[in-house]
């Protein structure tokens, strides 16, 4: 009887802790929406109020028309789709080669991928800028695509761990049936790693959609800006209209939120399976 009571208390305690953590995680998002519906003066009112006295829905219209938000949305969507596609394909191929193909130096190559993850991006940004300057690719989306679409060490690590968990008997059966490495990848491995690829694609989309540093370095023209760069332009030299910034931020977060809500089961499944080994 005592053990059951203790178990209930522990369960209740865990639930309370999880609820508190969920509220803390959701509060900044709720505050962003609240501020987006306030006037400029009410946004700085003290004591602050979560629910606005007057809902200023026109803040969203002002945020969309003050700057070319639609163009930035299309730019971010284009770069995200192209980069996600490239990162998923190259990560799956590299993960297959490092996870199942036996060749001398595979451990060294994989160690190189892992070591690249430890190098701060700011260290390689200047050499990349100089290279793309020589190629006349500054202020073009192509510069971002070339350096991002095939560069995702975390994706290689994720796919390698997932593919390593697949039974070797599948590969052996493919070899017996006369399949080469390419056909085994497309017909055996690829259909089985869909959860990992879906998880990778979601993380990649979030990262590319929210990317600020790379577009800031390589893009100069406003018509080529992505959403994070355009949000930065809402800040004035002396004043900041936080209501418009929060309204624009609310609009900007919708695609990421929708992708996560519709695909969260793939994230959990992909991460869970990549942590397992056969």
From TrEMBL:
SUPFAM superfamilies: MetI-like
Membrane topology of the entry: Multi-pass membrane protein
Domain ABC transmembrane type-1: start-end pairs: 73-263
Gene3D superfamilies: MetI-like
Record bears the keyword Transport: yes
Cell compartments where the protein resides: Cell membrane
Keyword Cell membrane tagged: yes
Similarity comment: family membership: Belongs to the binding-protein-dependent transport system permease family.
Name of the protein: Sugar ABC transporter permease
């Amino acid at each position: 009887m005592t053990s059951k009571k203790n178990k209930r208390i522990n369960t209740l305690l865990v639930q309370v802790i999880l609820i508190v953590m969920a509220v803390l995680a959701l509060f900044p998002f709720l505050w962003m929406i609240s501020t987006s519906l306030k006037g400029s003066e009410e946004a700085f009112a003290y004591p602050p109020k979560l629910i606005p006295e007057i809902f200023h829905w026109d803040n969203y219209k002002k945020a969309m028309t003050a700057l070319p938000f639609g163009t930035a949305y299309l730019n971010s969507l284009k770069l995200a789709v192209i980069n996600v596609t490239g990162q998923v394909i190259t990560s799956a191929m590299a993960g297959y080669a490092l996870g199942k193909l036996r060749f001398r130096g595979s451990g060294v190559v994989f160690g190189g991928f892992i070591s690249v993850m430890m190098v701060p991006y700011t260290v390689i940004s200047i050499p990349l800028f100089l290279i793309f300057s020589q190629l006349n690719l500054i202020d073009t989306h192509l510069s971002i695509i070339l350096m991002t679409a095939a560069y995702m060490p975390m994706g290689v690590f994720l796919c390698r761990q997932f593919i390593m968990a697949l039974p070797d008997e599948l590969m052996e059966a493919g070899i017996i049936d006369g399949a080469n490495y390419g056909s085994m990848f497309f017909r055996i491995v690829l259909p089985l790693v869909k959860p990992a690829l879906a998880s990778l694609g979601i993380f990649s989309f979030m990262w590319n959609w929210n990317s600020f540093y790379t577009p800031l370095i390589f893009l100069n023209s406003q018509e080529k800006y992505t959403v994070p760069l355009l949000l930065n332009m809402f800040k004035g030299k002396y004043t900041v209209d936080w209501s418009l910034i929060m309204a624009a931020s609310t609009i900007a977060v919708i695609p990421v939120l929708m992708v996560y809500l519709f695909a969260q089961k793939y994230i959990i499944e992909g991460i869970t399976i990549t942590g397992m080994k056969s």
